[in-house]
Amino acid sequence: MYKVLLVDDEALIREAISENTRWKELGYELMGTCKNGREAMERLDQEEADLVLTDICMPYMDGMELTRYLYEHHRGVKVIIISGYDDFEYAKTAVKYQVMDYILKPITAKELAQTLTRVKEKLDEERFQKSDMKRIRGAYMSNLPILRGRFLNSLLMGNVGEQEIQEKLNDYQIKLDGKYFMTALVTGDDLMPFLKQSDEYKSDLACFAIYNISAEIMDFYQAGVSFQDVDERTVLIFSGDEEIEGLALRVTEEIHDNIFRFLKIHCTIGLGGRTGRLQELQKSFQEARRTLEYKFVLGGDQVIYARELPENQDLVSGELPKYVSRICLAIRSGKKEDVSEEIRAFTSALRKSCLTRNRSIFHVQNLILSVMNELDLAALNDEEILKEERELMNTVYARNHLSEVEEVLIAFCSCLAENFRDEKDSYCKRQALRALYYIEEHYKDTDVTLNSVCSHLAMSTSYFSSIFKNYTGETFIEALTRKRVEKAKFLLENTSRKNYEIACDVGYSDPHYFSNIFKKATGMTPTEYARKVRK
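Given the sequence above, the corresponding structure tokens read:
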């Protein structure tokens, strides 16, 4: 139904048209009548109409003045003029103000009905076109983020021509009009804290949460644009003046802090260098991606700026025999302290070299193979050690940071040192060493028990408890607790993590229980210990 307003200063005409026109049958609803243009104007300002039937000559405001007002202020309202004046000037004015029809009096009900039918067809056509355009625009707007992402991804890959860049920026409403440009890549180091909150959470939701926080901060600083690439990683493109590097560092640091604050997810952000042309943005993005390769040696949970990376220098390749010789000597001596010291010297050289992850792992695996080849394993259980070596190789490749590799290297080589120290190398000793190694590998698991280690070793609990106590001087639970307390002390001394986080890191799901265990072992609560060592 289209709403119609009838305007005529003659009451009889208003009454005749109102009563003799079959409004509903024709697809209209008569919303009311007015006796002059001013009254109609006030009515239309309060309630919108689709069609106005108006006379020309009326007091206060005539039909032409009303038509002009509608043309200027209510462009969507259509007008039909019903007049007794056959004047060419009126007709020209009607055309100027886009009047749909100009009817001369007298007019019959049949003629008016025919006119209204023609007008309705035009109104229907316009409404359909508007609806169709609205639907198309709605589909376009809903897909705009995807179109933007595809274009920006192509831009960072260097697949967009110089002339096309500006056209696409305008088409997709992307504002990148600075003098300089930079890129950054935001990646979550570990999404598990977020995923454990609910079984309904998926990794893609965690990635979107990271993107959402990043986008809000980028918008707040008006620093540029952000989007998710095909791997659901968050990509930032900065635009600005000479201060763009300071802006990019400030924004990425704030993104890093807020992602952990709200999501409890540690993230690493790779920041590429600046460029003066959008066509060269690919270079900045390659730098941003390359910086993330150094997360392995430099550690994650930080912003790594490509321009601040030290120059690559391989300090290990030529010195590898020296490190192998020293580590083997420490293993043969049976002193775990010496083993730890030599392995830390090796990993320290890797850090100073600032090598990529793959290159660093290559050196670590070379070290393991060289150590195993140089050691005389005849007195030991070759098959068991070789199995542990294969497991170690897989473990090394699965670790995300060099510090984690350092821990497992020390644990493995320490086990070898203990084997060499004990000349008898009995079955009981090997089982006890495997249990210690099991503790080293699984102390973070909350479900580690005496039964679980016995199942791992295929031994009865009573027999295992006896040999373990004889060899180590403590029970399995005491050894497990000691290891967990040692790791907790290390975290309290070297990090700013919360007590409940450290409790989870060392295998305790109940922070209160962890606090009691820690106090019993050290005489201080974790908070007191942290305050003491950090002070």
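The CA atoms of residues 265 and 490 lie 21 Å apart. Try to locate this feature in the token string yourself.
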